[in-house]
Design a protein that fits this description.
It is globular and about 45 Å long. Helix 2 (23-36) packs across helix 7 and helix 5 (113-128) packs across helix 6 (194-209). It has a single domain (8-236), classed as BirA Bifunctional Protein, domain 2, CATH 3.30.930. By secondary structure, the chain is of the alpha+beta class. The chain is 32% helix and 24% strand.
Amino acid sequence: MCAACALERHAVFRLILDPPRPPALNMAVDEILMKGQKLPEAVPTLRFYSWLTPAYSIGYFQDVDEITARRRLAEKGIPVVKRITGGGMVFHGEDLTLSLTLKTPTPFLPREIKDSYLKINEALRVGLAEVLPAIDYASCKEVPSGRGGGERVCFETPSCYDLLLHKKKVVGSSQRRKDGTLLHQSSLFFKLDNKTLIHCVLRGFEKKWKVAFREIPLSDKELMEAERCALRRYASREWAWPPVENLPVVLV
């Protein structure tokens, strides 16, 4: 089937294939895309991105100072940035990260949060199973259902519906819902190149959600707004280590 025909027969999502960006800017772009869903003309958006430098991201309910002190990240010089989504700490550098932003309520996701994780992870599982047939879910009878806080490390303990490969957690996810919008973030840890991973994930969404994708990069306006948000929020002392006065944020 031709690409144009597919776009006519399916709901069309925006696709962003972003270059590596600094930690603060990566988080700011996701927030700007989430806020952009309030616009009447906005369509669901799937963004793939990586990290310009290794970094830790921590959940909204985790404390930057506490994490850096307990983990002694300061000695290693690894930056820490807080997400607006929940969940535990994730080390980025070798992962492919994706974000999905939609209006809510949406026909694409259930209202119940746990069920929404399942529907997104099912799309990922179906797509990735083409090259990784052993991929499966964590059993909800054997693992906790909570997304955690405190000093929780996302990939140390699987949660209900997390994706596992040979019993090891390979996809970590977190969500935020606010003002009729939803942001879902997932980090994918696989020994596959990003091009293959992206192809598999898109195939999974196309199969399970019956959607097509049209690549539309970030606009200059979106990027400028994200740069301002990164400096105002994500590079601040409350949201990052080191804070902005000690962190040479390279906005590209």
